[in-house]
Specification:
This is Enoyl-CoA hydratase domain-containing protein 3, mitochondrial. May play a role in fatty acid biosynthesis and insulin sensitivity. Belongs to the enoyl-CoA hydratase/isomerase family. The protein is α/β, with parallel strands linked by helices and 261 residues long. It has two domains: 5-202, 2-enoyl-CoA Hydratase, Chain A, domain 1, CATH 3.90.226.10; 206-253, Lyase 2-enoyl-coa Hydratase, Chain  A, domain 2 (Orthogonal Bundle), CATH 1.10.12. 49% of the residues lie in helices and 16% in strands. It contains eleven helices and ten strands. The chain has a six-stranded mixed β-sheet, with helices on both faces. The radius of gyration is 19 Å and the shape is globular.
Length: 261
């Protein structure tokens, strides 16, 4: 595991920490590579849920602008390098969505541009009241088109367009109201509240949650009839699990389930 992304595991909860505070945890080439490796490792593990947090004064300040400016030295002005960067970033976002385990962002501070995209991509998010969120690339002449993809799948379009075109930041309470995060909590309670949410998820039947997360993302952009067909198949697969049969029977018999997973 790279020092740029740290991992710890406790009671089925895998915690990943972005650890490049000197660049405000920017999504540099090295950070994207380290995060991708960490997610790949977790996908093969028996972790039940993931917390994504960060060290330093920012959760994530987006792409590394110094690296991006250096890319301009190429003969094509950096176009190919830029495209590759955004493809690699999109691939990491897809890893989060496709990860079997739910991912909860623990946002203690600023999440801007691709950092806001990272929060929007996570399955859930808990934010400290002092956290701020923005897609503010437009302030330096760069519309946040790739962060826009995740943002517009989280909050109403008119509010997304306002954020994208004005570069204005919103606070955690506003982010919760719009649906970008699940809840805003006092700064001192952030770790406790995030861990409590993760522990609740970790206490459920892991196989059921994995089936459910996959179906959740797969059906989201389908027409209703296709979504129901996909969800039907997920329910059938879930019901075919021995532990699910045990769970239903124990509910009927009013006893604790003897799950194996």
């Amino acid at each position: 595991m790279s020092d740029m992304v740290l991992r710890s595991d406790t009671d089925g909860i895998a915690t990943l920490t972005l650890n490049d505070p000197d660049t405000l945890n920017s999504l540099s080439d090295a950070m994207l590579a380290a995060l991708s490796r960490a997610l790949a490792d977790i996908a093969e593990s028996d972790a039940r849920v993931v917390i994504l947090r960060a060290e330093g004064k920012a959760f994530c300040a987006g792409h590394n602008l110094r690296e991006m400016q250096a890319m301009r030295q190429a003969e094509d002005g950096g176009a190919a390098r830029f495209a590759d960067l955004f493809d690699r970033c999109a691939a990491v976002m897809a890893q989060i969505t496709q990860l079997p385990q739910p991912v909860i962002a623990q946002v203690h501070a600023l999440a801007t541009a691709a950092g806001c995209q990272l929060v929007a991509t996570c399955d859930m998010a808990v934010a400290a009241e002092s956290a701020r969120f923005g897609v503010n690339g437009v302030n330096i002449g760069l519309f946040c088109s790739t962060p826009m993809v995740a943002l517009t799948r989280n909050i109403p379009r008119k509010h997304a367009m306002e954020m994208l075109t004005t570069g204005t930041f919103i606070d955690a309470a506003r982010a919760a109201g719009l649906g970008l995060v699940n809840r805003a909590v006092p700064d001192g309670a952030l770790e406790e509240e995030t861990h409590a949410l993760a522990a609740t998820v970790a206490s459920k039947l892991s196989r059921a949650v994995r089936i459910g997360k996959g179906a959740f993302h797969a059906q989201a952009d389908l027409p209703v009839a296709e979504a129901y067909a996909l969800a039907r198949d997920a329910m059938v697969a879930n019901l075919s699990e021995a532990d699910t049969a045990e769970g239903i029977q124990t509910f009927l018999e009013k006893r604790a389930p003897g799950w194996t997973q």
